Amino acid sequence: MRQDNQLIVLTHLSQLLTFITGFGGLLVPLVIWLTQKENVYKMDEQGKHILNFQISMLIYSLICIPLILALGLGFLGLIILCILSFIYPIINAIRASHGETPRYPLSLNFIS
Known about the structure:
Layout: H1 5-13, H2 18-21, H3 24-36, H4 43-70, H5 73-97
């Protein structure tokens, strides 16, 4: 196994593709994790954190959509999720560049 902090940082930052393409923030980290988890030190652990966060954000977003129609609170929820989805990949990319373990808020454990 090789140490490749740059690839891990890139994997964290690839989540931001959602803001450009609408869907790349889940697919690109998934592909990187699947292809590199055996080759790069800590990629398996960090990739799981990233994917759990992305899946959690997707589920929370889907929950907020009907709440927009029902209570109007879903719009506020989507704004908060959008902010978290933008800030935490950057924070955790910086942490990963220093060799630290990422921490994503509201992340459910789907992949362990």
